Protein backbone atom coordinates (compact mmCIF):
# COMPACT_ATOMS: atom_id res chain seq x y z
CA UNK A 1 0.00 0.00 0.00
CA UNK A 2 1.49 3.32 -1.06
CA UNK A 3 -0.50 6.51 -0.66
CA UNK A 4 1.91 8.33 -2.98
CA UNK A 5 0.73 6.17 -5.85
CA UNK A 6 -2.81 7.30 -5.29
CA UNK A 7 -2.74 9.99 -7.94
CA UNK A 8 -6.27 9.14 -9.00
CA UNK A 9 -7.69 9.52 -5.51
CA UNK A 10 -11.38 10.23 -5.36
CA UNK A 11 -12.68 13.21 -3.37
CA UNK A 12 -13.90 12.68 0.17
CA UNK A 13 -16.15 14.99 2.16
CA UNK A 14 -15.80 14.94 5.95
CA UNK A 15 -18.67 15.99 8.18
CA UNK A 16 -18.52 16.49 11.93
CA UNK A 17 -20.56 18.28 14.55
CA UNK A 18 -19.30 21.55 16.01
CA UNK A 19 -19.15 19.83 19.39
CA UNK A 20 -16.75 17.18 18.05
CA UNK A 21 -14.70 19.81 16.23
CA UNK A 22 -14.35 22.00 19.30
CA UNK A 23 -13.20 19.03 21.34
CA UNK A 24 -10.86 17.87 18.58
CA UNK A 25 -9.12 21.21 18.30
CA UNK A 26 -8.83 21.57 22.07
CA UNK A 27 -7.34 18.07 22.30
CA UNK A 28 -4.99 18.21 19.36
CA UNK A 29 -3.66 21.69 19.96
CA UNK A 30 -3.09 21.08 23.67
CA UNK A 31 0.66 20.84 23.00
CA UNK A 32 0.75 23.47 20.26
CA UNK A 33 2.90 25.00 18.83
CA UNK A 34 5.94 22.71 19.10
CA UNK A 35 4.76 19.18 19.78
CA UNK A 36 2.32 16.97 17.94
CA UNK A 37 -0.66 15.24 19.52
CA UNK A 38 -3.22 12.84 18.10
CA UNK A 39 -6.15 10.55 18.60
CA UNK A 40 -8.11 7.82 16.88
CA UNK A 41 -11.65 8.50 15.76
CA UNK A 42 -14.67 6.39 14.81
CA UNK A 43 -16.50 7.27 11.64
CA UNK A 44 -19.29 6.18 9.33
CA UNK A 45 -19.17 6.32 5.55
CA UNK A 46 -21.23 6.46 2.41
CA UNK A 47 -19.75 5.70 -0.97
CA UNK A 48 -21.35 8.19 -3.36
CA UNK A 49 -21.41 8.79 -7.06
CA UNK A 50 -18.67 11.41 -6.66
CA UNK A 51 -16.49 9.87 -3.96
CA UNK A 52 -16.88 9.21 -0.27
CA UNK A 53 -18.74 10.82 2.61
CA UNK A 54 -17.06 10.38 5.97
CA UNK A 55 -19.01 11.25 9.14
CA UNK A 56 -17.15 11.47 12.42
CA UNK A 57 -19.01 9.72 15.22
CA UNK A 58 -16.66 9.96 18.16
CA UNK A 59 -13.11 10.82 19.14
CA UNK A 60 -11.32 7.99 20.91
CA UNK A 61 -9.34 10.24 23.18
CA UNK A 62 -5.99 9.04 24.52
CA UNK A 63 -5.58 8.27 28.19
CA UNK A 64 -2.36 8.47 30.18
CA UNK A 65 0.28 6.38 28.46
CA UNK A 66 -1.59 6.03 25.17
CA UNK A 67 0.68 8.58 23.47
CA UNK A 68 4.30 9.27 24.37
CA UNK A 69 4.32 12.76 25.93
CA UNK A 70 8.12 12.97 25.70
CA UNK A 71 8.12 12.59 21.94
CA UNK A 72 7.82 15.58 19.60
CA UNK A 73 6.02 13.43 17.08
CA UNK A 74 3.02 11.14 17.46
CA UNK A 75 3.56 7.64 18.74
CA UNK A 76 0.46 5.54 19.45
CA UNK A 77 0.88 2.81 22.07
CA UNK A 78 -0.13 -0.75 21.23
CA UNK A 79 -2.87 -0.92 23.90
CA UNK A 80 -4.40 2.31 22.55
CA UNK A 81 -4.31 0.96 19.01
CA UNK A 82 -5.86 -2.34 20.04
CA UNK A 83 -8.57 -0.52 21.99
CA UNK A 84 -9.45 1.46 18.88
CA UNK A 85 -9.49 -1.68 16.77
CA UNK A 86 -11.86 -3.42 19.17
CA UNK A 87 -14.19 -0.43 19.24
CA UNK A 88 -14.22 -0.59 15.44
CA UNK A 89 -15.09 -4.26 15.55
CA UNK A 90 -17.84 -3.84 18.13
CA UNK A 91 -19.50 -0.81 16.56
CA UNK A 92 -19.38 -1.79 12.89
CA UNK A 93 -17.83 1.61 12.18
CA UNK A 94 -14.43 2.59 10.74
CA UNK A 95 -11.35 3.91 12.52
CA UNK A 96 -8.99 6.68 11.48
CA UNK A 97 -6.18 8.71 12.97
CA UNK A 98 -5.97 12.45 13.26
CA UNK A 99 -2.98 14.50 14.42
CA UNK A 100 -1.64 17.98 13.95
CA UNK A 101 1.61 19.35 12.66
CA UNK A 102 3.56 21.92 14.66
CA UNK A 103 3.60 25.63 14.01
CA UNK A 104 5.00 26.58 10.63
CA UNK A 105 4.30 23.19 9.02
CA UNK A 106 1.64 22.61 6.40
CA UNK A 107 -0.66 19.67 7.03
CA UNK A 108 1.24 17.74 4.41
CA UNK A 109 1.97 14.08 5.16
CA UNK A 110 5.60 13.33 6.01
CA UNK A 111 7.39 10.04 5.32
CA UNK A 112 6.62 9.04 8.91
CA UNK A 113 2.96 9.81 8.25
CA UNK A 114 3.13 7.65 5.15
CA UNK A 115 4.49 4.79 7.21
CA UNK A 116 1.82 5.24 9.89
CA UNK A 117 -1.07 5.47 7.45
CA UNK A 118 0.25 2.54 5.44
CA UNK A 119 0.47 0.42 8.57
CA UNK A 120 -2.96 1.31 9.89
CA UNK A 121 -4.62 0.94 6.49
CA UNK A 122 -3.61 -2.72 6.65
CA UNK A 123 -4.07 -3.23 10.39
CA UNK A 124 -7.57 -1.87 11.09
CA UNK A 125 -9.39 -3.82 8.34
CA UNK A 126 -8.42 -6.95 10.25
CA UNK A 127 -11.01 -5.93 12.86
CA UNK A 128 -14.70 -5.82 11.97
CA UNK A 129 -16.21 -5.67 8.51
CA UNK A 130 -15.18 -2.27 7.19
CA UNK A 131 -11.99 -1.98 5.15
CA UNK A 132 -11.92 1.82 5.06
CA UNK A 133 -9.14 3.71 6.84
CA UNK A 134 -8.50 7.46 6.91
CA UNK A 135 -5.66 9.58 8.24
CA UNK A 136 -6.11 13.31 8.75
CA UNK A 137 -3.68 16.09 9.63
CA UNK A 138 -4.54 19.48 11.07
CA UNK A 139 -2.33 22.54 11.27
CA UNK A 140 -2.59 26.29 11.62
CA UNK A 141 -1.72 28.69 8.85
CA UNK A 142 0.14 31.97 9.24
CA UNK A 143 -3.11 33.65 10.29
CA UNK A 144 -3.68 31.09 13.03
CA UNK A 145 -6.58 29.47 11.20
CA UNK A 146 -6.98 25.71 11.14
CA UNK A 147 -6.10 24.03 7.89
CA UNK A 148 -6.10 20.33 7.14
CA UNK A 149 -5.49 17.44 4.81
CA UNK A 150 -6.73 13.91 4.79
CA UNK A 151 -6.47 10.73 2.81
CA UNK A 152 -7.92 7.29 2.96
CA UNK A 153 -8.07 3.86 1.48
CA UNK A 154 -10.73 1.26 0.90
CA UNK A 155 -9.23 -1.82 -0.69
CA UNK A 156 -7.65 -0.63 -3.90
CA UNK A 157 -9.52 2.69 -3.90
CA UNK A 158 -7.86 5.84 -2.60
CA UNK A 159 -9.50 9.01 -1.34
CA UNK A 160 -8.36 12.55 -0.69
CA UNK A 161 -10.26 14.82 1.68
CA UNK A 162 -11.36 17.94 -0.14
CA UNK A 163 -13.97 19.42 2.15
CA UNK A 164 -14.73 19.63 5.84
CA UNK A 165 -18.28 20.52 6.85
CA UNK A 166 -18.92 21.42 10.49
CA UNK A 167 -22.49 21.40 11.73
CA UNK A 168 -23.31 23.58 14.68
CA UNK A 169 -26.62 24.80 16.01
CA UNK A 170 -25.60 28.40 15.38
CA UNK A 171 -23.34 28.11 12.36
CA UNK A 172 -22.63 25.80 9.43
CA UNK A 173 -18.98 25.90 8.34
CA UNK A 174 -17.43 24.75 5.08
CA UNK A 175 -13.66 24.49 4.88
CA UNK A 176 -11.62 23.34 1.92
CA UNK A 177 -8.36 21.50 2.32
CA UNK A 178 -5.33 23.84 2.17
CA UNK A 179 -7.49 26.87 1.37
CA UNK A 180 -8.65 28.16 4.71
CA UNK A 181 -6.07 30.93 4.75
CA UNK A 182 -7.04 32.28 1.35
CA UNK A 183 -8.41 35.81 1.34
CA UNK A 184 -12.16 35.93 1.43
CA UNK A 185 -13.91 36.91 -1.75
CA UNK A 186 -15.63 40.26 -1.64
CA UNK A 187 -19.37 40.53 -2.12
CA UNK A 188 -20.87 41.05 -5.54
CA UNK A 189 -22.43 44.38 -6.29
CA UNK A 190 -25.88 42.84 -6.32
CA UNK A 191 -25.63 41.60 -2.76
CA UNK A 192 -23.70 44.61 -1.47
CA UNK A 193 -26.55 45.48 0.89
CA UNK A 194 -26.36 42.05 2.45
CA UNK A 195 -22.62 42.57 2.89
CA UNK A 196 -23.20 45.92 4.56
CA UNK A 197 -25.71 44.42 6.96
CA UNK A 198 -24.09 41.11 7.82
CA UNK A 199 -20.47 41.79 6.87
CA UNK A 200 -18.28 40.92 3.91
CA UNK A 201 -17.35 37.60 5.47
CA UNK A 202 -20.98 36.53 5.65
CA UNK A 203 -21.63 37.60 2.07
CA UNK A 204 -18.58 35.64 0.96
CA UNK A 205 -19.70 32.62 2.96
CA UNK A 206 -22.97 32.49 1.04
CA UNK A 207 -20.99 32.32 -2.18
CA UNK A 208 -19.16 29.19 -1.04
CA UNK A 209 -22.09 27.21 0.28
CA UNK A 210 -24.11 24.53 -1.47
CA UNK A 211 -27.81 24.37 -0.70
CA UNK A 212 -30.28 21.64 -1.64
CA UNK A 213 -33.90 22.48 -2.29
CA UNK A 214 -36.07 19.39 -1.92
CA UNK A 215 -39.42 20.19 -3.46
CA UNK A 216 -39.17 23.05 -5.95
CA UNK A 217 -42.71 24.28 -5.82
CA UNK A 218 -44.71 26.69 -3.64
CA UNK A 219 -42.24 27.07 -0.76
CA UNK A 220 -39.08 25.70 -2.36
CA UNK A 221 -38.98 28.01 -5.36
CA UNK A 222 -39.26 31.30 -3.41
CA UNK A 223 -36.76 30.03 -0.83
CA UNK A 224 -34.19 29.31 -3.54
CA UNK A 225 -35.09 32.52 -5.31
CA UNK A 226 -34.22 34.56 -2.20
CA UNK A 227 -31.01 32.61 -1.62
CA UNK A 228 -29.82 33.13 -5.19
CA UNK A 229 -30.30 36.87 -4.90
CA UNK A 230 -28.46 36.75 -1.56
CA UNK A 231 -25.43 35.32 -3.36
CA UNK A 232 -25.71 31.53 -3.02
CA UNK A 233 -24.06 30.11 -6.12
CA UNK A 234 -24.42 26.37 -5.84
CA UNK A 235 -27.76 24.56 -5.72
CA UNK A 236 -29.06 21.02 -5.82
CA UNK A 237 -32.70 20.99 -6.93
CA UNK A 238 -34.79 17.87 -6.25
CA UNK A 239 -38.35 17.33 -7.39
CA UNK A 240 -39.87 14.41 -9.30
CA UNK A 241 -42.70 16.34 -10.91
CA UNK A 242 -43.22 18.15 -14.15
CA UNK A 243 -44.87 21.55 -14.12
CA UNK A 244 -48.68 21.54 -14.05
CA UNK A 245 -50.95 24.48 -14.95
CA UNK A 246 -52.06 24.90 -11.33
CA UNK A 247 -48.40 25.45 -10.36
CA UNK A 248 -48.29 28.79 -12.19
CA UNK A 249 -49.94 30.42 -9.22
CA UNK A 250 -47.03 29.68 -6.87
CA UNK A 251 -43.92 28.30 -8.59
CA UNK A 252 -41.44 31.11 -9.08
CA UNK A 253 -39.91 31.06 -12.53
CA UNK A 254 -42.85 29.37 -14.23
CA UNK A 255 -44.75 30.97 -17.11
CA UNK A 256 -47.50 30.18 -19.61
CA UNK A 257 -44.82 29.59 -22.24
CA UNK A 258 -43.64 26.53 -20.31
CA UNK A 259 -46.74 24.71 -21.52
CA UNK A 260 -45.83 25.13 -25.16
CA UNK A 261 -43.78 21.98 -24.69
CA UNK A 262 -45.40 18.57 -24.45
CA UNK A 263 -44.75 17.21 -21.94
CA UNK A 264 -44.20 20.38 -19.94
CA UNK A 265 -40.78 20.80 -18.33
CA UNK A 266 -39.68 19.41 -14.99
CA UNK A 267 -40.08 21.87 -12.14
CA UNK A 268 -36.34 21.65 -11.42
CA UNK A 269 -35.57 22.74 -14.99
CA UNK A 270 -38.02 25.64 -14.85
CA UNK A 271 -36.47 26.92 -11.70
CA UNK A 272 -32.90 26.30 -12.87
CA UNK A 273 -33.61 28.69 -15.74
CA UNK A 274 -34.76 31.36 -13.29
CA UNK A 275 -31.59 30.93 -11.22
CA UNK A 276 -29.39 31.25 -14.29
CA UNK A 277 -31.26 34.36 -15.40
CA UNK A 278 -30.36 35.93 -12.05
CA UNK A 279 -26.73 34.88 -12.20
CA UNK A 280 -25.31 32.79 -15.06
CA UNK A 281 -22.42 31.71 -12.82
CA UNK A 282 -24.71 29.79 -10.49
CA UNK A 283 -24.10 26.04 -10.50
CA UNK A 284 -27.27 23.94 -10.48
CA UNK A 285 -27.62 20.17 -10.26
CA UNK A 286 -31.15 19.15 -11.25
CA UNK A 287 -32.54 15.81 -10.12
CA UNK A 288 -36.00 14.62 -11.07
CA UNK A 289 -36.35 12.28 -8.13
CA UNK A 290 -37.22 11.90 -4.47
CA UNK A 291 -35.17 12.43 -1.33
CA UNK A 292 -35.52 8.76 -0.42
CA UNK A 293 -33.65 7.62 -3.51
CA UNK A 294 -29.98 6.71 -3.27
CA UNK A 295 -28.78 8.92 -6.10
CA UNK A 296 -30.41 11.95 -4.50
CA UNK A 297 -28.89 11.10 -1.14
CA UNK A 298 -25.49 10.84 -2.80
CA UNK A 299 -25.89 14.37 -4.11
CA UNK A 300 -26.84 15.64 -0.65
CA UNK A 301 -23.60 14.34 0.88
CA UNK A 302 -21.80 17.56 -0.03
CA UNK A 303 -24.45 20.17 0.70
CA UNK A 304 -24.25 22.62 3.60
CA UNK A 305 -27.98 22.69 4.19
CA UNK A 306 -31.21 21.16 2.91
CA UNK A 307 -34.41 23.15 2.64
CA UNK A 308 -37.16 20.54 2.71
CA UNK A 309 -40.22 22.03 1.05
CA UNK A 310 -42.34 19.00 0.20
CA UNK A 311 -44.53 18.88 3.32
CA UNK A 312 -44.76 15.09 3.13
CA UNK A 313 -44.42 12.59 5.93
CA UNK A 314 -41.74 10.55 4.21
CA UNK A 315 -39.62 13.62 3.46
CA UNK A 316 -39.80 14.77 7.06
CA UNK A 317 -38.71 11.33 8.18
CA UNK A 318 -35.89 11.33 5.63
CA UNK A 319 -34.45 14.71 6.60
CA UNK A 320 -34.63 13.78 10.26
CA UNK A 321 -32.63 10.65 9.48
CA UNK A 322 -30.16 12.50 7.24
CA UNK A 323 -29.50 14.89 10.12
CA UNK A 324 -28.52 12.26 12.65
CA UNK A 325 -27.03 9.52 10.50
CA UNK A 326 -25.28 11.64 7.85
CA UNK A 327 -24.87 14.94 9.76
CA UNK A 328 -26.75 16.88 7.08
CA UNK A 329 -28.88 19.68 8.58
CA UNK A 330 -32.28 20.68 7.27
CA UNK A 331 -34.89 23.37 7.62
CA UNK A 332 -38.29 21.80 6.99
CA UNK A 333 -41.35 23.86 6.13
CA UNK A 334 -45.03 23.12 5.69
CA UNK A 335 -48.14 25.22 5.30
CA UNK A 336 -51.83 24.63 5.94
CA UNK A 337 -55.05 26.54 5.52
CA UNK A 338 -58.21 26.47 7.60
CA UNK A 339 -61.67 27.61 6.58
CA UNK A 340 -65.04 27.88 8.22
CA UNK A 341 -68.39 28.93 6.81
CA UNK A 342 -66.85 30.03 3.55
CA UNK A 343 -64.19 32.19 5.19
CA UNK A 344 -60.49 31.53 5.53
CA UNK A 345 -59.71 31.34 9.24
CA UNK A 346 -56.14 30.13 9.24
CA UNK A 347 -53.01 30.49 7.11
CA UNK A 348 -50.58 28.44 9.09
CA UNK A 349 -46.88 27.85 8.68
CA UNK A 350 -44.67 25.35 10.46
CA UNK A 351 -40.88 25.43 10.43
CA UNK A 352 -38.64 22.79 11.99
CA UNK A 353 -34.86 22.65 12.24
CA UNK A 354 -33.25 19.21 12.03
CA UNK A 355 -29.61 18.78 13.01
CA UNK A 356 -27.46 16.11 14.67
CA UNK A 357 -28.60 15.61 18.25
CA UNK A 358 -31.90 17.40 17.73
CA UNK A 359 -35.16 15.44 17.91
CA UNK A 360 -36.10 13.54 14.76
CA UNK A 361 -39.51 13.71 13.10
CA UNK A 362 -40.78 10.81 15.22
CA UNK A 363 -39.60 12.40 18.47
CA UNK A 364 -41.51 15.50 17.40
CA UNK A 365 -44.65 13.55 16.57
CA UNK A 366 -44.47 15.10 13.11
CA UNK A 367 -45.25 11.93 11.17
CA UNK A 368 -48.67 10.45 10.54
CA UNK A 369 -47.94 6.77 10.02
CA UNK A 370 -51.00 6.11 7.85
CA UNK A 371 -50.34 9.08 5.57
CA UNK A 372 -46.70 8.06 5.33
CA UNK A 373 -47.73 4.56 4.28
CA UNK A 374 -50.11 5.91 1.64
CA UNK A 375 -47.39 8.17 0.23
CA UNK A 376 -45.23 5.12 -0.42
CA UNK A 377 -47.88 2.62 -1.59
CA UNK A 378 -48.24 1.34 -5.12
CA UNK A 379 -51.34 2.48 -7.01
CA UNK A 380 -52.39 -1.19 -7.22
CA UNK A 381 -52.31 -1.57 -3.45
CA UNK A 382 -54.31 1.62 -2.98
CA UNK A 383 -56.95 0.37 -5.40
CA UNK A 384 -57.09 -3.05 -3.75
CA UNK A 385 -57.41 -1.54 -0.29
CA UNK A 386 -60.25 0.71 -1.43
CA UNK A 387 -62.13 -2.32 -2.77
CA UNK A 388 -61.53 -4.22 0.47
CA UNK A 389 -62.71 -1.20 2.47
CA UNK A 390 -65.94 -1.14 0.47
CA UNK A 391 -66.38 -4.88 1.08
CA UNK A 392 -65.84 -4.33 4.80
CA UNK A 393 -68.53 -1.68 4.88
CA UNK A 394 -70.87 -4.11 3.08
CA UNK A 395 -70.18 -6.68 5.84
CA UNK A 396 -70.97 -4.07 8.48
CA UNK A 397 -67.32 -3.66 9.50
CA UNK A 398 -65.25 -0.50 9.86
CA UNK A 399 -63.35 0.35 6.67
CA UNK A 400 -60.43 2.19 8.19
CA UNK A 401 -58.20 -0.81 8.67
CA UNK A 402 -58.21 -1.18 4.90
CA UNK A 403 -58.34 2.38 3.68
CA UNK A 404 -58.76 5.93 4.87
CA UNK A 405 -58.77 8.82 2.43
CA UNK A 406 -55.93 11.31 2.73
CA UNK A 407 -57.21 14.67 1.50
CA UNK A 408 -54.78 16.74 -0.53
CA UNK A 409 -54.56 20.17 1.05
CA UNK A 410 -54.51 23.09 -1.37
CA UNK A 411 -51.98 25.88 -0.95
CA UNK A 412 -51.78 29.35 -2.44
CA UNK A 413 -48.84 31.33 -3.69
CA UNK A 414 -48.94 34.40 -1.49
CA UNK A 415 -48.55 32.33 1.65
CA UNK A 416 -46.17 29.70 0.29
CA UNK A 417 -43.93 32.54 -0.89
CA UNK A 418 -44.03 34.04 2.59
CA UNK A 419 -43.12 30.72 4.21
CA UNK A 420 -40.41 30.01 1.63
CA UNK A 421 -38.86 33.44 2.11
CA UNK A 422 -38.91 32.96 5.85
CA UNK A 423 -36.91 29.74 5.75
CA UNK A 424 -34.47 31.37 3.31
CA UNK A 425 -33.92 34.01 5.96
CA UNK A 426 -33.21 31.40 8.61
CA UNK A 427 -30.93 29.60 6.15
CA UNK A 428 -28.87 32.77 5.67
CA UNK A 429 -28.58 33.16 9.41
CA UNK A 430 -27.50 29.55 9.95
CA UNK A 431 -25.05 29.47 7.07
CA UNK A 432 -23.33 32.68 8.09
CA UNK A 433 -23.65 32.32 11.84
CA UNK A 434 -25.06 35.82 12.02
CA UNK A 435 -28.39 34.96 13.60
CA UNK A 436 -30.45 31.99 14.64
CA UNK A 437 -34.11 31.18 14.89
CA UNK A 438 -35.48 31.58 18.41
CA UNK A 439 -36.75 27.98 18.55
CA UNK A 440 -36.22 24.61 16.87
CA UNK A 441 -39.89 24.37 16.00
CA UNK A 442 -42.03 27.33 15.05
CA UNK A 443 -45.69 27.60 14.15
CA UNK A 444 -47.57 30.71 13.17
CA UNK A 445 -50.93 31.72 11.81
CA UNK A 446 -50.97 35.08 10.10
CA UNK A 447 -54.70 35.46 10.64
CA UNK A 448 -54.42 35.36 14.44
CA UNK A 449 -53.37 38.21 16.73
CA UNK A 450 -49.60 38.20 17.12
CA UNK A 451 -49.56 35.94 14.07
CA UNK A 452 -50.46 33.10 16.44
CA UNK A 453 -46.78 32.55 17.02
CA UNK A 454 -45.76 29.47 18.98
CA UNK A 455 -42.13 28.48 19.41
CA UNK A 456 -40.99 25.38 21.19
CA UNK A 457 -37.88 23.30 21.77
CA UNK A 458 -39.03 19.78 22.49
CA UNK A 459 -36.42 17.31 23.67
CA UNK A 460 -35.62 14.12 21.80
CA UNK A 461 -36.86 10.86 23.29
CA UNK A 462 -33.95 9.57 25.33
CA UNK A 463 -34.23 6.09 23.84
CA UNK A 464 -34.66 7.15 20.22
CA UNK A 465 -32.16 6.01 17.61
CA UNK A 466 -31.74 9.65 16.57
CA UNK A 467 -29.68 10.03 19.74
CA UNK A 468 -27.63 6.84 19.44
CA UNK A 469 -26.76 6.66 15.74
CA UNK A 470 -25.32 10.14 15.24
CA UNK A 471 -22.85 9.97 12.36
CA UNK A 472 -23.34 6.27 11.65
CA UNK A 473 -24.07 6.96 7.97
CA UNK A 474 -24.45 3.72 5.98
CA UNK A 475 -23.16 1.73 8.94
CA UNK A 476 -26.46 2.59 10.63
CA UNK A 477 -28.51 0.92 7.91
CA UNK A 478 -29.64 -1.72 10.38
CA UNK A 479 -31.84 0.97 11.93
CA UNK A 480 -32.87 2.93 8.84
CA UNK A 481 -36.36 4.34 9.21
CA UNK A 482 -37.35 4.95 5.60
CA UNK A 483 -36.54 3.59 2.15
CA UNK A 484 -37.46 4.37 -1.43
CA UNK A 485 -40.20 2.08 -2.76
CA UNK A 486 -38.93 0.06 -5.68
CA UNK A 487 -41.93 0.99 -7.84
CA UNK A 488 -40.83 4.62 -8.06
CA UNK A 489 -39.17 5.59 -11.35
CA UNK A 490 -35.40 5.96 -11.20
CA UNK A 491 -33.83 9.36 -10.60
CA UNK A 492 -33.27 11.36 -13.74
CA UNK A 493 -30.55 13.98 -13.97
CA UNK A 494 -31.79 16.90 -16.01
CA UNK A 495 -28.93 18.15 -18.17
CA UNK A 496 -28.34 21.84 -18.80
CA UNK A 497 -29.83 21.57 -22.27
CA UNK A 498 -32.80 19.55 -21.10
CA UNK A 499 -36.06 20.59 -19.49
CA UNK B 1 -35.22 -5.07 -1.53
CA UNK B 2 -32.58 -2.39 -1.04
CA UNK B 3 -29.46 -3.04 1.00
CA UNK B 4 -30.69 -0.69 3.72
CA UNK B 5 -34.03 -2.46 4.05
CA UNK B 6 -32.41 -5.87 4.07
CA UNK B 7 -29.96 -4.76 6.77
CA UNK B 8 -32.86 -3.42 8.81
CA UNK B 9 -35.03 -6.54 8.46
CA UNK B 10 -32.15 -8.89 9.23
CA UNK B 11 -31.33 -6.83 12.29
CA UNK B 12 -34.93 -7.09 13.47
CA UNK B 13 -35.09 -10.84 12.89
CA UNK B 14 -31.86 -11.30 14.84
CA UNK B 15 -33.67 -9.89 17.86
CA UNK B 16 -36.32 -12.63 18.06
CA UNK B 17 -35.78 -16.21 19.07
CA UNK B 18 -38.37 -18.04 17.05
CA UNK B 19 -37.26 -19.35 13.66
CA UNK B 20 -37.92 -17.01 10.73
CA UNK B 21 -37.30 -16.98 7.01
CA UNK B 22 -36.62 -13.92 4.87
CA UNK B 23 -37.82 -14.59 1.32
CA UNK B 24 -37.75 -12.46 -1.82
CA UNK B 25 -40.00 -11.59 -4.77
CA UNK B 26 -42.27 -10.83 -3.12
CA UNK B 27 -40.18 -9.78 -0.13
CA UNK B 28 -41.62 -11.28 3.02
CA UNK B 29 -40.84 -12.67 6.44
CA UNK B 30 -42.20 -16.04 7.47
CA UNK B 31 -42.56 -16.63 11.18
CA UNK B 32 -42.21 -20.40 11.52
CA UNK B 33 -44.13 -22.84 13.73
CA UNK B 34 -45.93 -20.33 15.89
CA UNK B 35 -47.98 -21.87 18.71
CA UNK B 36 -51.73 -21.26 18.67
CA UNK B 37 -54.11 -22.11 21.48
CA UNK B 38 -56.85 -22.63 18.91
CA UNK B 39 -55.30 -25.51 17.01
CA UNK B 40 -53.16 -28.35 18.25
CA UNK B 41 -50.49 -27.90 15.64
CA UNK B 42 -48.32 -24.81 15.21
CA UNK B 43 -48.70 -22.57 12.19
CA UNK B 44 -46.49 -20.49 9.94
CA UNK B 45 -47.46 -16.87 9.35
CA UNK B 46 -46.17 -14.77 6.48
CA UNK B 47 -45.93 -10.97 6.55
CA UNK B 48 -45.01 -8.94 3.47
CA UNK B 49 -42.24 -6.34 3.55
CA UNK B 50 -44.21 -3.38 2.21
CA UNK B 51 -42.94 -0.85 -0.32
CA UNK B 52 -41.17 1.92 1.52
CA UNK B 53 -40.55 -0.18 4.63
CA UNK B 54 -39.89 0.65 7.46
CA UNK B 55 -41.64 4.01 7.13
CA UNK B 56 -44.57 2.09 5.67
CA UNK B 57 -46.20 0.19 8.49
CA UNK B 58 -46.38 -3.58 8.70
CA UNK B 59 -49.95 -4.62 8.07
CA UNK B 60 -51.94 -7.77 7.30
CA UNK B 61 -50.89 -11.36 7.84
CA UNK B 62 -50.97 -14.45 5.62
CA UNK B 63 -51.79 -17.99 6.66
CA UNK B 64 -50.92 -21.09 4.61
CA UNK B 65 -53.61 -21.81 2.02
CA UNK B 66 -56.18 -24.12 3.55
CA UNK B 67 -55.12 -23.38 7.13
CA UNK B 68 -57.76 -24.41 9.70
CA UNK B 69 -57.28 -20.99 11.26
CA UNK B 70 -58.75 -19.22 8.22
CA UNK B 71 -62.18 -17.90 9.11
CA UNK B 72 -61.56 -18.76 12.74
CA UNK B 73 -59.20 -15.93 13.60
CA UNK B 74 -60.23 -12.32 13.52
CA UNK B 75 -60.02 -10.82 10.03
CA UNK B 76 -61.56 -11.50 6.67
CA UNK B 77 -59.71 -14.00 4.43
CA UNK B 78 -58.80 -12.36 1.12
CA UNK B 79 -56.84 -13.31 -1.98
CA UNK B 80 -54.00 -15.81 -2.30
CA UNK B 81 -50.36 -14.86 -2.75
CA UNK B 82 -47.29 -16.97 -3.55
CA UNK B 83 -44.16 -16.37 -1.50
CA UNK B 84 -41.22 -18.53 -0.52
CA UNK B 85 -42.45 -21.30 -2.80
CA UNK B 86 -45.82 -21.64 -1.03
CA UNK B 87 -49.32 -20.26 -1.39
CA UNK B 88 -50.68 -18.05 1.35
CA UNK B 89 -54.08 -16.55 2.04
CA UNK B 90 -54.20 -12.92 3.09
CA UNK B 91 -56.16 -12.11 6.21
CA UNK B 92 -57.32 -8.57 6.88
CA UNK B 93 -55.53 -8.06 10.12
CA UNK B 94 -54.52 -4.45 10.89
CA UNK B 95 -52.93 -4.13 14.33
CA UNK B 96 -51.44 -0.66 13.77
CA UNK B 97 -54.57 0.94 12.32
CA UNK B 98 -57.06 0.87 15.15
CA UNK B 99 -56.28 -2.81 15.76
CA UNK B 100 -55.00 -2.51 19.29
CA UNK B 101 -51.31 -1.90 18.66
CA UNK B 102 -49.89 1.61 19.10
CA UNK B 103 -49.49 3.84 16.03
CA UNK B 104 -46.67 2.62 13.82
CA UNK B 105 -43.30 4.17 14.63
CA UNK B 106 -40.28 2.78 12.75
CA UNK B 107 -37.93 3.98 15.46
CA UNK B 108 -39.63 1.45 17.76
CA UNK B 109 -41.53 -1.08 15.68
CA UNK B 110 -40.56 -3.71 13.15
CA UNK B 111 -40.74 -7.43 12.54
CA UNK B 112 -39.34 -7.91 16.04
CA UNK B 113 -42.44 -6.27 17.55
CA UNK B 114 -44.97 -7.43 14.95
CA UNK B 115 -44.39 -10.97 16.15
CA UNK B 116 -46.05 -10.02 19.44
CA UNK B 117 -49.14 -8.85 17.59
CA UNK B 118 -49.22 -12.00 15.47
CA UNK B 119 -48.83 -14.31 18.47
CA UNK B 120 -51.79 -12.62 20.16
CA UNK B 121 -53.83 -12.78 16.98
CA UNK B 122 -53.40 -16.49 16.34
CA UNK B 123 -54.59 -17.41 19.82
CA UNK B 124 -57.88 -15.53 19.88
CA UNK B 125 -60.89 -16.55 17.83
CA UNK B 126 -63.33 -14.17 16.22
Brief account:
The complex is a heterodimer of chains A (about 500) and B (about 130). Chain A has helices at about 20-30, 80-90, 110-125, 190-200, 200-210, 220-230, 265-280, 295-300, 315-325, 370-375, 380-395, 415-430, 465-470; strands spanning about 10-15, 40-45, 50-60, 95-100, 130-140, 145-155, 155-165, 170-175, 210-215, 235-240, 285-290, 305-310, 330-340, 345-355, 440-445, 455, 490-495. Chain A is of the alpha/beta class and about 500 residues long.
Output the structural class of chain A. Answer: alpha/beta
Count of alpha/pi helices of chain B: 2
Over the alpha carbons, how many angstroms does the gyration radius of chain A reach?
Answer: 25 Å
Strand order, largest beta sheet of chain A: 16-15-14-13-12-9-10-11-17
Strand order of the largest sheet of chain B: 1-2-3
Number of helices of chain A: 13
Question: What series of H and E elements makes up the topology of chain B?
Answer: HEEEEEEH
Global outline of chain B? globular
Main beta-sheet annotation of chain A: 9 strands, mixed
End-to-end distance of chain A, in Å? 46 Å
Low-confidence stretches of chain A: none
Amino acid sequence: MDFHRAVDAQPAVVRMTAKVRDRLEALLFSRYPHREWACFFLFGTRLTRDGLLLTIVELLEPSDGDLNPESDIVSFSEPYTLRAALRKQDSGLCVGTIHYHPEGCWPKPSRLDDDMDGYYAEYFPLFGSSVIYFGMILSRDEHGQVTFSGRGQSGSDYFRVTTLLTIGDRKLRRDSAFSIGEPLDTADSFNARLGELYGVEAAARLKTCRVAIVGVSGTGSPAAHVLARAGVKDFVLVDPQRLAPSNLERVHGSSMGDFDADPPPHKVAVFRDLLLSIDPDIKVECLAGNILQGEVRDELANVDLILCCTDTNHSRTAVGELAYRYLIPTIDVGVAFEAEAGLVTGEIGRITFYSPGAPCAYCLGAVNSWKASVELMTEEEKALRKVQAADAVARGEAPNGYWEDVPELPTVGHFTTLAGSLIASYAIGWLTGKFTAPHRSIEFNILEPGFGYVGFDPPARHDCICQTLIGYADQGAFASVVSAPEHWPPVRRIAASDR
Amino acid sequence: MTDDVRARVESELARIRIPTLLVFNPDAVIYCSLPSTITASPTDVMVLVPAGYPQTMLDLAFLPEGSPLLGVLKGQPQQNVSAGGRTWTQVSYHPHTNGGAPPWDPTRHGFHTYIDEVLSWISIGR
